Amino acid sequence: MDAGGIATGRRRVKAALFLFCCGLGGSLPHGLGVWSPLPALALALALGGYGFKAVFLGPSRESFDAAKPGEAEPGAPDLPAVDLPAVDLVVAARDEEAVIGRLVQRLSQLDYPQELLRFWVVDDGSEDGTAAVLAAQQGVYPQLQVVRRPRDAGGGKSGALNTVLPQLAGRWLMVLDADADLQSDVLRRLVPFAEAGGWSAVQLRKAVVNAGHNLVTRCQAMEMALDAVIQEGRLQAGGVVELRGNGQLLRREVVLACDGFNEATVTDDLDLSFRLLLEGQPVGLLWNPPVQEEAVTTLAALWRQRQRWAEGGLQRFFDYWPRLWSGALPLEKRLDLAVFFLLQYGLPVMASADLLASLLSRTAPAFWPLSVLAFGLSGGAILKGCRRPSEGPALPAMDLANLALGIVYLGHWFVVIPYTTLRMALLPKTLVWAKTLHGGASGEPALADPTP
Question: Rounded CA gap, 337 and 82, in Å?
């Protein structure tokens, strides 16, 4: 068995152990005949204090807005002048005929010295017209570099990024999805922010461009705002910021020191976040300017996408948890990880076991205080994020109907997480690139079928 096979085998055992512990914790109050919501209420109060601080007592909005060229950083002293470094913009593309040409054109319009900018597109075995579009674009944009690899090369998006990584020469690399859109001044704001802040990586807030398409896309727009608010609060409290794939600026030498991107994971961004954390490399976050992207438009596409996100999120904890909890990290970061692991992953599985046990024993659910906490914090983050002045696409208006819709929508994680955990524990895993197809202006984005 190769290294990737060993890793996935170990994850299966760890997933089974995690499932067993959460199932036992969720059903034990009913099985012992000593049902009481008091333990869950006590845990909710303990976790809620940290969560409340992260969501409601976080920094002012200016703390995570990058100054526009020629302006001082809002709410802060003038940043020192930075000699603009070279930047490589990197895209891993598979079957992106509908949007890849538009992306290259948008990148060419960025307000940044062209001699310091190169575009790299890794054509990962596309079977549509992606290669032809890129060939035509190379004749127009000399800074565009195209690298092609076979469709069965393996490693998914991580493998595609690793293919081009040794060829990069810029101080920074920025990873983008094929449907990304950036404001023209983003690099002139983002790069000085990263340099002056001493960050090894900076993640842009993700903004949904098609929020008005239907209820599914509107909910995802609210969810992206929620995510950025919570990440800001975690960072302010000394916690952990996670990369989100699209719109992540990375210091090239730091990525190389981490041995590149992990090809044995389904979410390269979440995995790299933990490896940077363990190496003591700080990760920052920007609310403004954002990176714009398409949201999936159907429930089926959302289900498939969220399974991948859930699996990647659990994989990184299974892979790195011993080192995360070994004392190598500061106490505040370990506390942050523990709180959000319990709320994001432990709670949905325990709540499912609690519900099943309550039905079998005909007793009331015992974990409702934790569920109320999770939905309350999430609703507060949606409200705070969507009311905040934001560049890029307009966020959904925060009336009672939209707030209620957003909170109900987040309940899908209480299905996705338990289902994904069960699947990881019972079924062997073959790593595939289950990517999101982007429709651009001519179609709707949908999640592609995984390829063997």
Answer: 34
